[in-house]
Amino acid sequence: MNHNPVLAVLKERFGAFVSGEELGRHAGVSRTAIWKRINHIRSLGYGIESSTRRGYRLVKVTGKLIPEEVGWGLNTATVGRSILHYDEVASTNEEAKRLAIEGAEDGAVLIAEEQTGGRGRLGRGWISPRGGIWLSVILRPRIAPSDGPKVMMLAASSVFATLRSAGLAASIKWPNDIIVGGKKVCGILTEMASQPEIVDHIIVGIGLNANISLELFSTDIRACATSLEAELGHPVERLKLVQGLLQGLDVRYAGLKKGNFDSIVGEWRGACGTIGQEIELSTASGTVGGLAVGVDGCGAIVLRLSDGSERAFSAGEVTVVKR
Ligand code: BTN
User: Fold this and answer.
1) What atom of ligand 1 comes closest to residue 112's alpha carbon?
2) How remote is the CA of residue 18 from the centroid of ligand 1, in Å?
3) What is the pLDDT along the chain (323 residues), one digit of tens a residue?
4) Which of 81, 98, 261, 292 has the smallest count of CB within 10 Å of its CB?
5) What residue ranges in the chain does DSSP mark as E strands?
């Protein structure tokens, strides 16, 4: 876990002066070397006052989702044991793929304040300005590639549960959009690399519109997307949400590793607002209408068509038909 002993002491004694000598003792470095460490901590966005006689005191914590904050008090077995932070990156999913190929550990998390080339499903882009929660998790479950969609389901259920605990009436829209107030607040992009028999790694990319002003969206996007800040009327505490999300992912991921597929699919089904609705599904080969009667074990949506037959679709965009 990313550990910074100087910051840890300053945080524990928030607002109180700690001498350079004492900080040096905790960090195992000389009193003079502490100065450099303090400047580094300041560069992370923390406010530290210094006094020649009394030492240093922390007066403001950073608002960034850096490992020193996210990892602080996080009690997970796998997810978030390693956290990387980017002030700006093209796409955390792209970066995660590169690191996964280089052998990054199971559960490693990459978080960005801003993405300049965020990627969405179906080859689309993903608007990722500051204020949002843009993260990717590298998972290495020893499961068959055909069970890969369960990872997408456990990710959607984790976001759903996190938002519910924050008091938001969230639901899942097939395949993995999270809806609040009738609009999309979060998207999930899972990307899998596998051998014929076994998964090598799955990147779970989660984009949560947390503290985003809707003015940053085009009129088209505003018609179907929202942010937590816009729904609640005030900014959310991103740190708490990220920690809750990583905790939720960790618990569900442990279940997946034990083969508890039924509970993963069951939880997802319970949270999905698409099932039971009359929908139109636009797919690469055209639009099809029908009643969404369920999802199969591969996460494909099962539609009852007008002739009474049932057909499963693994990809597409859902529009609920209003009657
Ligand atoms: C969707 O189209 O609904 C999926 C959007 C996924 C966006 C997230 S943001 C973090 C991660 N990095 C990316 O480039 N995409 C995912």
Assistant:
1) 10
2) 42
3) 457 899 999 999 999 999 999 999 999 998 888 999 999 999 999 999 999 999 999 999 999 999 999 998 899 999 999 999 999 999 999 999 999 999 999 999 999 999 999 999 989 999 999 999 999 999 999 999 999 999 999 999 999 999 999 999 999 999 999 999 999 999 999 999 999 999 999 999 999 999 999 999 999 999 999 999 999 999 999 999 999 999 999 999 999 999 999 999 999 999 999 999 999 999 988 999 999 999 887 889 999 999 999 999 988 989 988 76
4) 98
5) 47-51, 55-60, 83-86, 109-112, 133-139, 170-173, 177-180, 183-194, 199-208, 278-283, 286-295, 301-304, 310-313, 317-320
